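Predict the 3D structure for this chain.
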Amino acid sequence: METQARKQALNLGLYMGLTLILVTTICYVVNVGWLANFWVGLLNLVLVFSFALFSCYAARKIFKFPSFKDVFTSYTITVALGLIISTLFTIILFNFIDTDAADIIKEKSIEEVQGIMERFNAPQADIDKAVQEARNADNNFSVGSQIQGYFIFLAIMLLIGLLASLLFRKKDPTLA
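Done. Predicted structure below.
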């Protein structure tokens, strides 16, 4: 992979990580409960996809005829770096700076699940069971949970990256 392409992928990964940190920080400062909100999670997902796909597009611009490997490498560097930066920030914020915030987010998540179940007219016994299971669940912000979540999300994103790389590669017509 060319130095320019690697540098571009690293920059995009850094920008992705910083953007995700910015979203987390804004939510944390304004209303920490927003971090349990579906729409904030969706925003983060859209940001990750946007940076990932832009890295594929950038690789296509750098290489005249990028191979599958060129595009996938750019995608992988961007996604892996951006997600690890965001994950490390989350670990530091919720395990060392403000450990009480994780409990607030857990309670808001339980309220969200309870509200959704009530809107779908779930039986009260099922709602109570789901709430109790959520209360007994491990801390989603623990170091182990965050690292596990990083690798699971990275694996999913890399599977998507395989498809994106197929779409963004470009064959040299002179080599037909």
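The longest helix spans residues 68-97.
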